[in-house]
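Sat 14:20. Reprocessing the chain from the morning session after the first attempt stalled halfway. Input below, unchanged.
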Amino acid sequence: MKYQLTDTSVKAAKPKEEGKPSKYTDGGGLFLLVNQSGKYWRYSYRFNDKQKTLALGVYPDINLKTAREKHQEARELLARGVDPSSYKQQAKAEQIAITENTFEAIALEWFSKFSKDWAESYSIKLMSRFKNDVFPWLGNRPIATIEPPEILKCLKRVEERGALDSAHRIKRNIGQVFRYAVATGRAQRDQTTDLKGSLPPTKKTNLAAIIDPLRVGGLMRDIQAYEGHLTTRIALQLSAYLFQRPNEIRSMEWSEIDVDKALWGIPANKMKMRQPHLVPLPKQCLELLEEIRPLTGHRRYVFPSMTDSTKPMSNNTIRQALRRMEYSKEDMTAHGFRAMARTILEEVLEVNPVYIEQQLAHAVKDANGTAYNRTKHLAKRITMMQQWADYLDSLREGAQVIPFKTKTNQ
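Finished this time. Tokens:
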């Protein structure tokens, strides 16, 4: 084919009539369209007896040599019976799909869809794991092209810094994103299934808790005498009386408290099991809430952050307070109040374990297979919670300790 244009003629090309576009033909259907706004390469061809035009780019981003190369590629497609315009549209759509279907894009979509039902603290931790340990290496990769060895490499980085438990959690989170991608047609399978056994198993350790009644009495006296901030002292006391999870205690809101019914209604998005939960409030707890109300009652949270009152107390506050009272992590943890109550209620006070598990909001079902119901055994739980609070007070005041049942000493 003999081409007609030159670099010089292309550069000098102008509209032949003012206000009207002009065509400068190069040959074989390739031409330069020139108007007041710029110069555009076009390819005119026929496909299935229809006249069509393919855009090849804008000059000078696409120079004469490159325009001819693109023109030749389109001619070769046409010779094979492929419509160059349809081919270009398909290639563009595939490229968009690759961009939109990166691991990070799908992970963020999955997170946005499901995180509204999660506890805020869990959402923050999960996204932190992705941003720090996954996105920098896998984020820009099309999810359908990611292979198990690449995932394992990410997990090994976490393991090698001594965070094996986090590595297992990240593996589970990556698997959740892959399964969502499979369900939405953007991946063929969950690649993490091939990584079974690729990480060392974690060693399950029980969080430290004081379960000896005599020592519990000392703990309650230390809490009552705590010299730190009032909100921290009351948060410690409510942790003992109510034995809910640390995140639930610290994020308690005034709007969740029904003083008249003496109930604390925790919404589902704050609960680990994603079910709303009712916590009976013994009279001791109602008194503590009234004590703190003048200080934080005008805020959203019962225990607002010291640095930002629009946020709840830090998740480290209770732990740090225990350390300040000289309870080491081997002695007592913020989560240990739950184990303390669970053990003593059953072994010392001989409360029905069903009521205890219900109050702990554990995922248990009754004999009929009925799942958790926040109002189930409520009257029994109200009695149990008052009994527990009274018992803690008696220990704090130095009452004679009821020993554990014999079976616990065997």
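The first helix runs from residue 7 to 12.
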